[in-house]
Design goal:
Chain lengths: 120, 286
């Protein structure tokens, strides 16, 4: 299956970026083949709605799950509407580590926004 | 004549000067008492000095989209045209985020299926009432949690209908962003209140740039101006900004304001100075 991660650079061994809407890259990973493709985050400089843009990006890439450090209320609502599951990095430091933990079912799934957003 | 009072830096004395000017002109007798408009809708406080009886309160809202999902084809056009990412299409759902919506109507106009209608989303209120000395007092109040002040300031501007000879005083919010621009847009003249400090001067320069961009003539009031501050004098001279008034710091003034008394209540002698300041502005901007 395809999942999407917020990362600091372009390789699977790169550091995670805990921000979802404002991460440097959004990386799509195939959990079976470990094939990874990183895309510059479209919302990194948006004045608002970055989390929504990132969620639309994830839906456009047919990701079934997203891993990040935080999900604000807008990103949460958008991902939920798209039927995309949300997981937290926890103490993972690289994208590869997070994908492995995800495959082992060891990442915490998110059932509610993890922060209050940047406009409230 | 419409005079906006702004500063860039917060806490320089905008509301003190704006309300003092209003009170001085109200007691002048020749023209109708001024209309006073508190445009600092995020933290309005001019009512403390002018004590209006606010009888009339009207809601202000912006029009936000409502999508008829039975007719929506999820084509994504609305999300594509929205500059604020306030509407998103995710699979078989179209979501609206009211707090991000600026009410521009692009999604509604450009929906190929014509399946978007609009409803009013309340963001604040406008209140009006008579204040001391017959001043017509108007203010906007932004609801807690709402991010956008500009629609309320625009609505305030629409409600200003001065009688012949009636002066309008617009008390701007601090800063130099959209709400300040929205306040300045309705004005004929900009009164900039500054303090003789590096911070005051830095933000004054920004406010002057905004005024130049809008093409608004401006003059300066130096508040709490105890000693000389050559940088400020030099800047005003080189920018062609007249310094119209200087108000030295006095403990008595600060103590009075802290008790909710206006500058001209504490120092009635300033009344004549404010009337002269107005005469000079009117004379220079005929």
């Amino acid at each position: 299956m395809k999942i999407l991660l917020s990362t600091a650079s372009t390789s699977l061994d790169s550091a995670i970026d805990p921000r979802f809407g404002r991460s440097a890259y959004l990386m799509v990973v195939d959990t079976d083949t470990l094939q990874a493709e990183a895309h510059p985050n479209p919302g990194v400089n948006a004045s608002g709605g970055a989390g929504i843009q990132a969620a639309q990006f994830a839906a456009g890439k047919s990701a079934q799950a997203v891993i990040s450090g935080d999900f604000g209320p807008n990103a949460f609502d958008a991902l939920k509407a798209a039927g995309i599951a949300m997981y937290l990095y926890g103490d993972c430091s690289t994208a590869r580590q997070a994908v492995e933990r995800f495959r082992e079912g060891k990442l915490q799934e998110v059932g509610a926004p993890t922060q209050h957003g940047h406009h409230a | 004549m419409r005079i906006a009072v702004a500063s860039g830096k917060g806490g320089t004395g905008k509301t003190t000067i704006a309300t003092s000017l209003a009170l001085s002109l109200a007691g002048g007798g020749s023209a109708p008492p001024p209309i006073f408009v508190d445009c600092d809708v995020e933290a309005p406080n001019a009512h403390i000095f002018l004590k209006p009886r606010l009888g009339d309160s009207q809601p202000v809202g912006i029009m936000i989209p409502v999508v008829d999902e039975t007719r929506c084809t999820f084509c994504g056009k609305c999300a594509e045209v929205c500059a604020y990412h306030a509407i998103a299409v995710l699979g078989k759902k179209t979501l609206v985020f009211p707090q991000l919506c600026h009410g521009c109507g692009s999604c509604t106009s450009l929906c190929p299926e014509n399946c978007i209608s609009e409803i009013a989303n309340p963001i604040g209120v406008i209140e009006r009432g008579p204040a001391v000395q017959g001043i017509d007092f108007l203010r906007g109040v932004l609801n807690i949690g709402q991010p956008m002040a500009v629609p309320i300031i625009r609505e305030l501007q629409r409600r200003i209908k001065p009688l012949p000879g009636q002066v309008v005083i617009l008390d701007a919010p601090p800063g130099t962003s959209c709400p300040v621009v929205a306040t300045m847009r309705g004005a004929d003249y900009l009164l900039l209140v500054t303090e003789p400090t590096p911070f005051g001067l830095h933000d004054l320069k920004l406010a002057v740039q905004v005024a130049a961009e809008i093409g608004l003539p401006a003059g300066v009031v130096v508040n709490r101006g105890d000693g000389p501050f050559p940088d400020l004098e030099r800047f005003c001279a080189s920018a062609g900004l007249p310094i119209l008034m200087r108000i030295p710091f006095q403990r008595k003034t600060a103590a009075g304001i802290a008790r909710g008394k206006n500058l001209v209540e504490v120092h009635p002698e300033y009344t004549a100075a404010f009337r002269e300041l107005f005469q000079q502005i009117a004379e220079d901007n005929k």
